[in-house]
Design brief:
72% of the residues lie in helices and 0% in strands. It has helices at 7-15, 19-41, 44-60, 71-87, 90-100, 111-129, 133-143, 149-156, 160-181, 186-192.
């Protein structure tokens, strides 16, 4: 006979701050969540940190979980968001940017990883070249010349809001282009973070 409580009973206990329900939740789902994280991260230490963050977030938001219909779906959604946050981290972005500089590639970047990032870089260049002239100009001033929104606005004699609109549109177009033309891999997810809007 199965004496384990169902999700509804477990969530009720969790919402009430019952630590036994939280421990049970961890025991039932941690394994598959860890395997999901590791598919993308490929670092045991980082995957364990992300898993810890997932369950810490669940515990902190325990009082708001009463309306959730599927705890498993919710857990995977939280986990996916934590994985994306990891890819957006400064540490990961720095690694990608080092790899993209051929003369400054990190020693621990294997040949396959390096080739993959170079291929994504070429795809990104194709996407940038397809942007309308003004949007391309704004994007290059931001990402290649390192100018901020106000500096770009002053140089091009347009408003700051217009600069922001061009950057959002350019980043969205490039990200969509990469996703359509590149294989969906962990490396692509990392590379896409270079085109997050940082206004």
């Amino acid at each position: 006979m199965n004496n384990l409580p169902d999700d509804a009973a477990m969530m009720t206990g969790l919402c009430q701050g019952d630590r036994a329900s939280f421990v049970l939740l961890y025991e039932q789902h941690a394994g598959e969540l860890y395997r999901y994280i590791y598919l993308f991260i490929r670092s045991r230490e980082d995957a364990e940190d992300i898993l810890q963050n997932v369950f810490t977030r669940i515990w902190m938001k325990r009082e708001t979980l009463g309306e959730i219909r599927s705890m498993r779906s919710f857990l995977f959604r939280v986990t996916r968001n934590q994985v994306l946050n990891y890819f957006r981290s400064a540490k990961v972005k720095m690694r990608v940017q080092q790899i993209m500089a051929a003369e400054d590639a990190p020693e621990n970047a294997d040949a396959g990883e390096l080739l993959q990032y170079k291929q994504y870089y070429e795809l990104a260049k194709d996407a940038i070249n397809k942007l309308p002239k003004r949007r391309q100009e704004v994007f290059r001033l931001s990402h290649e010349s390192g100018l901020n929104t106000h500096e770009i606005a002053d140089q091009l004699h347009i408003s700051s809001s217009a600069v922001k609109q061009h950057l959002y549109a350019a980043s969205d177009f490039i990200r969509d282009y990469l996703q359509k033309h590149g294989d969906i891999t962990a490396s692509l997810l990392v590379f896409l973070t270079l085109f997050d809007n940082c206004l």
